[in-house]
Amino acid sequence: MDRSAQLYLLITSLLLLQWLIDYSSANSDINADRSSLLAFKSRISLDPHNILPQSWRNESNICSWMGVTCDSRYHRVTQLNISSMGLVGTIPPEIGNLSFLVSLDLSNNSFHGPIPASIFNMSFLEVLNLRKNSLSSSLPFDMCKHNLHKLKRLRFSYNNLFGEIPSSLEHCSLLDYVSLINNNFSGQVPTQIGNLTLLQELYLGANNFSGNIPKEIGALTNLQTLDMSVNNFSGYVPREIGNLKMLQLLDLHNNELCGNIPKEIGYLTNLVSLGMSTNNLSGPLPATMSDMTSLEFLGVAVNHLSGSLPRNIGNMTSLWTISLAYNNITGEIPKEIGSLTNLEILSIPINGISGSLPREIGNLTSLVDIYMDYNALSGHIPIEMGHLVNLEYLELEHNNLIGALPKKIVNMTSLISLFLKYNSLSVSMSMLHPIL
User: Fold this and answer.
1) What 3-state DSSP class applies to 279?
2) Are 321 and 301 in contact (CB under 8 A)?
3) What is the C-alpha separation between 293 and 268, in angstroms, rounded?
4) Region 309-336: what's the mean pLDDT?
5) Nearest to 219 by CA among 237, 188, 235, 198
6) Residue 144: C-alpha distances to residues 135, 139, 371 (Å)
7) Fewest C-beta in 10 Å: which of 22, 89, 284, 312?
8) Average pLDDT value over all residues in the chain
9) CA distance 420 to 377
10) Which residues contact 50 (CB under 8 A, 6 or more apart)?
11) Confidence (pTM)
12) Strand partners, 112
């Protein structure tokens, strides 16, 4: 046998040996994945649709099991998605042995008990979705220090998780989505959150967080959604929030924030929704807010805001809701409000608004609700309000309005509720008959 034939046989033998080793290793790893999934199945106490007993059979190929996706080369489990199956049970630690797992979605079930520590050791995981369960545990203080470095989406919302956000979360530097909404998390938001510079959506609402909103949050310049509502945050709204030029939703309602709304809020020219109601904010609405021409929802009710409505409010032509109830706003309603032709809800009750209702309010033909009760409005109700053909609720009681109620308003077929008590209006019962 010549040398070339010997060399060919040697190379062929080596390749065959390597294949046998790889096959044996892969087979062993697949069996490990199988064992992990069967351990998971054994922890299910209720499967109302009998999905796992029918699909997850020991003798079948695990890559054909419902909710299981494998890679094409090694046939290792890369995705486990058993969301919205009505499953009841606990998550076993063996789930951490799915070492090739990229996406884990157990959302919208009834899993209870703690999140196994092994989940936080999965080095390939990019998506971790456990939302809408009944899980109860704290997050490990080193949850991102050693693994999870590829994690992009973290969804733990609507559980019973508690404790603080670990500062080590900063090491999950690829995160672009974090949702912890509706849990029992407490403590302060760590300043290290500012290192997650790829974040696009951050949801921390409906928890028990306290302390200041860290100014470091201003470093999250890719952020599009920031929800910190329904917590116990105190102190000022940080000026650095004006750095978040990509922000479309900012929700800080139901906290204990104080001080002025910073003028830097006006830098958020892509903002669509601003919620700051039910805080202790004071001072005037910043004039810079007129630059927020994309804003559709302005909610700053139940605060201690003062000053008057800025005339340049007419620049905010995308607005469909203005909610300023329960403040100390004074002065007149500027006629420039007539430029807000997309406005559907105008709510300014229980303030100190004075002067007459501007005729230009008749331009707002999209208006459905007007709430201006408990103010100091005076003069006549302008006949132009009869142009509001979509109006359903008109509440003007407890003001100083005078004169006759325009008949065009009485004849508005869309009107469901009309409150005019405690004014000096002349209204006959025959006129009111159509809407009683």
Assistant:
1) coil
2) no
3) 10
4) 97
5) 198
6) 20, 10, 49
7) 22
8) 92
9) 12
10) none
11) 0.90
12) 90, 134
